Amino acid sequence: MEAETAGPEVDAPFPKAFKPLFQPARYKVFHGGRGGAKSWNFARALLILGAEKPLRILCAREFQTSIDDSVHRLLSDQVQALGLSGFYEVQKTQIIGQNGTLIVFEGLRRNINSLKSFEGCDICWVEETTDVSKTSWDILIPTIRKGGSEIWISFNPELDTDETYQRFVLKPPSNSVVVKVNWEDNPWFPDVLRSEMEDLKARDHDSYLTVWEGHCRQSLDGAVYAKEIREATAANRITRVPYEAGKPVHTFLDLGKSDNTAIWFAQVVGFEFRIIDYYQNHGHNLSHYVKVLGERPYAYGTMWLPHDATHDLLASERTIEQQMRGFGFNVRIVPKTSVATGIEASRTIFGKCWFDQEKTSDGIQCLRHYHYERKQDGLTFGKEPVHNWASHGADAFRYLAVAMQEEKPKSKQSNQRGPQGNGAWLGA
Questions:
Q1: CB-based contact 48:13 (threshold 8 Å)
Q2: How confident is the model at residue 12 (pLDDT cuts 50, 70, 90)?
Q3: CB crowding 269-279: b at 16 or more within 10 Å, else e
Q4: DSSP assignment letter at 275
Q5: What pTM does this model have?
Q6: Torsions phi, psi for 31 (to 5 deg)
Q7: How far apart are CA 176 and CA 124, in angstroms?
Q8: At what angle do helices 361-369 and 134-143 cross, to 10 degrees?
Q9: How many percent of the chain have pLDDT more than 70?
Q10: DSSP assignment letter at 312
Q11: Where are the domains of the chain?
């Protein structure tokens, strides 16, 4: 991209902790607690660099259903604050500089395979990376491959087992700058946040350490499966679990309409439930997930769908159940139960589950982050888990557990490769 005009000079103060943003490095990783102004300083630095020379900048996050979910508004505000409104044209979905700088915004999960068009990207800023999956990182990193290109990462850590924390903080790649930034590194830290910080410190010191000091938790407060995952880890049941040819692979789906769809892939071997694969995405129609299933080298057994699949249509005149049967799958419906009953079923079968560490890492991340909502008293938790990015994978696992309690079919049918397979549930 060639410059057409020289960019304006911007004189803006930056805290000492953020000076590495202006020094070359492949990875610039900023993590820490609330109040450190990570996003604010990232936005200012990108705008300044983009004014100095033409850059192609991608601002990404794991899930973005609309431009409102992005940092578009933050960058727009900083354009005004830095006095760059005469240089940058803020459009609805992108920001363009007079010198050719282009800033665009994308969600990784929905558009991850289309990100190849950004291979000419100079800087990719991935924000709120706690929920960025292993799958997304594995695809994004080699996509940003232009000579001298950089990947900027900003997040507030939660668990030290999270993919981003493992990949960029505990085991950072070469040519990385890793900086921990907290509230004390922000010279403009407001008094209103200081009061909130002191209140939390007095009320719940462990939460204070995570929220304000950027320490990782051993498990999320109110985590639904904390005990089960801890035991599975100690027993080395999160390991390499290969696909056993000749045994059917059963699938368990949580189908989202406007949000995420999650799929667990499991085999039954003896008394073990071998969880060999996982897939999650959003914003796609049913044919996308059928394609995903068909691309895997599995002989499919039973496809278990939630009870609403018997009446939900998803842009078709036929129900989801009818559509999946039309694609050749052997479909059964998970009995309708309460969330609490499903969670209990999940806890019951967890000790028999073996998870492939690589292929189910995104699903395990969901299970680790699935948690009950904290009540207003700040000390106790409600009966219902929080509905967020992690709940879809957890819901699909809940369907797996409930399905496993179903009566074993009397007849066994042969397995076939691909969607036409109809091997019996719990078949040997």
A1: no
A2: confident
A3: eeeebbbbbbb
A4: E
A5: 0.73
A6: -135, 160
A7: 14
A8: 130
A9: 88
A10: -
A11: 21-202, 226-404
